Amino acid sequence: MFRRSELDHRPSVQIFVDGAAVAAREGDTVSAALLASGRDVRRLTAVSGAPRLPYCMMGVCFDCLVTIDGVGNRQGCLVPVAEGMQVELQKGKREIGR
Amino acid sequence: MPRKYGGEYDVAVVGGGLLGSAIAWGLGRLGKTVAVLDEGDIAKRASRANFALVWVQSKGLGMPAYTGWTVRASQAWPKLAAALQQQTGLDVCLQQNGGFHLTLGDDEFAQRGQLVTRMHNQVGAADYRMEMMSASDVKKALPLIGPEVSGGSFCPFDGHVNSLRTFRAFHAGFKAFGIDYFPERPVSAITRNDSEFRLTTPGGEIRSEKVVLAAGNANQALAPMVGLFAPMGPTRGQIVVTERTMPFLPHPLTTIRQTDEGTVMIGDSKEDELDDRVLKHPISGVMADRAQRMFPHLARLNVVRSWAGIRVMPQDGFPIYDQSEAHPGAFVACCHSGVTLASNHAFDVARMVAGGALEPELVGAFSASRFGCEGATNNSGY
Ligand code: FES
What we know:
The structure holds 2 protein chains of 2 kinds.
Chain A: E1 12-17, E2 20-25, H1 30-36, E3 43-44, E4 51-52, E5 65-68, E6 71-75, E7 86-89
Parallel strand pairs in A: 1-7
Antiparallel strand pairs in A: 1-2, 3-4, 5-6, 5-7
Chain B: E1 8-14, H1 18-29, E2 34-37, E3 53-54, H2 64-88, E4 99-104, H3 105-121, E5 131-134, H4 135-141, E6 149-155, E7 159-160, H5 163-177, E8 180-182, E9 189-193, E10 196-201, E11 204-213, H6 219-222, E12 232-244, E13 256-258, E14 263-267, H7 270-273, H8 276-279, H9 283-294, E15 303-314, E16 320-323, E17 330-334, H10 342-355, H11 360-363
Parallel strand pairs in B: 1-2, 1-11, 2-8, 11-17
Antiparallel strand pairs in B: 3-7, 4-6, 5-6, 9-10, 10-11, 12-14, 12-15, 13-14, 16-17
């Protein structure tokens, strides 16, 4: 659905999404990298389990929640990617101790 | 503004919080025509500071009748939850599998033990099987407790409910029963002409055969208008709410509960509110600190909301139910535990109001006459 602009020459950064390597660009937020990856990056909501994608991309809707480096319920749209970052699509409520 | 009944009702309930809503719903259930006169959205609603416990343990020290009234409410809750679900389709998520009060350190454990002994020794109180448990026994039921937990007390009658949905269910029930709910109608005066009460509101006059004052802290000002007396005052309560997390807490605690939707609520119990040493500290900090000493993994969770609310507190902490001798048909009801007692309000108090008289064997101990002569009280204003 999303395509990177040809004018975007930022250096690439490798992150992992549920263990699979994904190429992001320096300065991407986690949510932007997920949307640009072309993968199915829908999370499931905490109460009804409805599928959701990042929506506002500016920190207000909380529809972008992901587990980043073992910490659950992080807002992917507010966290810049970093080399080797482990991202897990969060299915439902935040897990105990994560 | 009167709608269906041309301004004439069997009963006008003043106050649309949890207590007024429960009584009004109960009256509607008995086929009465009811008007609920509520304030607006910015009212200081005591119901908003509730912690949603249906709680028995440690209630009634100093007034055995309150223990019995509370146990009765706990036992009637399943009937209320079922009736609301049947009528409105809303599941209020009542869970009554027993609750804990956890203690941190040896001193708290010893103090709690003394309280349990005093409750057991109180003559005339219903036995609700509250018992002390060691930390290792607590851990069997609550495996995630931290090393500072020294044990606690457990009561098999304790539970909790989704109080927001309960409130919504009562209001959905109003519609089904044809109850007229009027927001933005604070009552400024009540007079009685012949056999009817006239209530002055900004939206016009409401007339009714009976009136129930269920306006929380405002009862103090309203009660004298109909020859009643409600010595009370607000207290502050605070609640901290975390983001949703996987279920980890199978039983509610006096100060921590996990809702059916995964949210963790951290509040302060009634005991703690009356402890002025706690109030000297920034309260939510103390609450959150204690919560994470009880369950260390809570430290990782984000707090998404926290708020303070005004709570209703009768002068001696026990409920007040009374009827006016000068103006038969006028009743007053005030209590701190509007969630726990909602079942009694919906069934018992509504039945008594409909019948025109309070039943002394059930609520006689809660008359405001226990405070002595009406004029003599000095309102502490707390
Ligand atoms: S996408 Fe809305 S908060 Fe992240």
